[in-house]
Amino acid sequence: xxxxxxAGDRHPAQRSLDLRDAPLKKRTFVSNFWGAVQVGGYxxxxxxxxxxxxPVPVALDTPVGPMLVYEGTAATFSIQYPEGWERQxxxxxxxxxxxxxxxxxxxxxxxxxxxxxxxxxxxxxYIETILKIIGANPADLQLISTVPTTTLQxxxxxxxxxxxxxxxxxxxxxxxxxxxRLGFGASYIVPQARSEELEPLVTYSFCSFKxxxxxxxxxxxxxxxxxxxxxxxxxxxxxTNEQKGDFESAIDDLSKAVEVLPRDKGLHISRAMNYWxxxxxxxxxxxxxxxxxxxxxxxxxxxxxALVHASAQDYEQALADVEEALELTEESQGAYAAYLDTRAYxxxxxxxxxxxKADYDTALERGLMSPAPFLGAGLTYAVLEETERxxxxxxxxxxxxxxxxxxDPQLADLITRAQAAxxxxxx
Length: 427
Prior knowledge:
Elements (H helix, E strand, L loop, with lengths): L34 E5 L2 E5 L20 E5 L5 E6 L3 E3 L7 E4 L5 E8 L10 H13 L5 E10 L5 E9 L4 E10 L3 E10 H16 L2 E2 L6 H27 L2 H14 L4 H13 L3 H14 L4 H13 L3 H13 L6 H16 L3 H13 L5 H13 L3 H15 L7 H18 L1
Antiparallel strand pairs: 1-2, 3-4, 4-12, 5-6, 6-7, 7-11, 8-9, 9-10, 10-11
Helix pairs in contact: 2-3, 3-4, 4-5, 5-6, 5-7, 6-7, 7-8, 7-9, 8-9, 9-10, 9-11, 10-11, 11-12, 11-13, 12-13
């Protein structure tokens, strides 16, 4: 036997390793060594068996089928995905992509905000960026739902659902932000025909998300999946009833969902909105209080509370609530303009028209395009006898509002006021 590597093999220093698909914390450079040992007059060359560079992962046995674990590259994120979904080349801004031969794609995106030049971003601002992309492509992308959720580790996340290509494709995206610097998105992109079939699998996958290597019990993941699936069924039924204008039935559906997931902020917010619609202001405020017990800095709860108090003619508390919402929100966020619209509405109905005008002007300058600020601003300009601008704003607002089948109480009130003001201006 002779020492040295066999023909055709190269010295470790000459080999190049393609590690693009390996997680950063898993990247290990392994050098084979060659040893020559003389034994009884013979020279033996020993070559150790090289470890498999890509060990075969072991699938987890779960109620939705065998699942593998994806481990993040930018941080210690992990999430389970279906075994049998083949890894494919990742696209731009993607960390990994897996595809099912029966139709469906699972995509992971990990974004370092600082390296992208975005600076620190919290979850709300990250979601706002995603929603702007969806809103900028109304012909191709249609938002279905935005559901705040909490992981098994108690971390806040958002479950987004939107359609692509007129509903042919359904996308459900789990979004989490780590320390205001790393965004994690896991998306299932499936044909609409398979979306209902894959719903339990997607829900289970999202329940399995964890960060920083902390243990999450498999039994807890399975229970989370069962609860989420059950609650989402009631949530979907509530959404259908809302679209029919049957808000009492929507409240019943949401109450069943709350029994399953009592700490789900999104369910309490949705039920509060429906209580507001049926003028049960006390119960609406109870739900909002529950949300603030779960998350004292949840600005949306304060904003809705302001509108509920305004409907109940408690204007002092309405202003206090919207001021709290504004204080909790960065001026650069889109929600800030929406909260200015709420404050402007309160100023309008309490007769403080100069303050209302200032807030409405700012909200519109910031690009708030819903009917309410146009109607409110039009009414304010009409009171201030700037009739030409008032007529323009009222016309635009009423055109937009005509597409809303079941307006909320704020918008319904503005529509009634605007129709009367428009008649007066044109008479």
